[in-house]
Amino acid sequence: MTIYTVFVEPKTSGNIGFLARCMKNFGLKKLILIKPCKLKDDAYYQAMHAKELVENAQIYETLDEFIEDKQITQTIATTGTPGGSYNIPRIPITASQMGEKINPEKQNIALLFGREGDGLSNEELEKCDTLVTIPTSEEYPIMNITHAASIIFYEIYKNTQKTYPIDDMDIADYEDKQVLNQAIDEITQKLDYPDYKQKQVNILAKRIIGRAFITGRELRTMRGLLNRINKRIENKQEE
Questions:
Q1: Where does the signal peptide begin and end (predicted)?
Q2: In whole angstroms, what is the distance from residue 202 CA to residue 88 CA?
Q3: Closest listed residue to residue 189, CA positions, set 130, 229, 159
Q4: pLDDT per residue over 195-226, tens digit each?
Q5: Tens of pLDDT, residues 99-115
Q6: In CA terms, which of 30, 75, 173, 222 is 20 to 30 Å from 104?
Q7: Could you give the residue ranges of the DSSP H alpha helices within 110-194?
Q8: Alpha helices in the chain (DSSP H)
Q9: Rounded mean pLDDT of 224-233?
């Protein structure tokens, strides 16, 4: 399994080089660029000893194309403007909380970093399983993208430099989790939720499932439960 560092629509090639340099500091090797600016000499200059990461970077036109192509199990996005409890698409966890839960040995993980200055759009954030924010001083709360990336990379590196105790554990993959999300979607469509509420519930469920470390047995049990709920609702509606 793999961790991909994904830079969405970078505007300056120098920042691509800086990001590659940060990646190499913490042993990350897969750089993905979504609809990037033209790569110039400063990308390679700023990368220093990580030039090969820039040279080997893969380019995609859209985020959806990348997620489907690499069969991403967990998508983690960063934001400098988190929301509160009633802004579900922007409810975040901290970088340290994210680092404690991540398991790259069992998952294909995408770390999303947005455009310089603009960040990721609400639509892009809604595609993500986990949202991460880094607490900063109110005097200057917005971080440079490569500074934020370094903190995220450090938390992952710190928590993954160990051997997991059960190597053969059956862990739910991307397709397994999609089955749970689809089951919840089917249930919410049958309930009397307004459209906006249904969307919020589905995003919330997707985030919880995305953050969760789910074994195959746990997933099958949850899927059976959701299928029973779905069937009960259908029977009730037919009466």
A1: none
A2: 10
A3: 229
A4: 888 888 888 888 888 777 788 888 889 889 99
A5: 877 776 768 899 999 88
A6: 222
A7: 122-126, 145-160, 174-190
A8: 13-25, 41-47, 51-55, 63-70, 95-101, 122-126, 145-160, 174-190, 195-211, 216-238
A9: 90
Contact criterion met (CB below 8 Å) for 134 and 95:
yes
133 and 179 Cβ atoms separated by less than 8 Å: no
How far apart CA 106 and CA 123 sit, in angstroms, is 27
pLDDT band for 143, please (50, 70, 90 cuts): confident
Length of the chain: 239
Residue pair 6/34 in contact by the 8 Å Cβ criterion: yes
Its pTM stands at 0.69
Whether the pLDDT of residue 136 is over 80: the answer is: yes
Measured between alpha carbons, how far is 135 from 21 in angstroms, rounded to an integer? 23
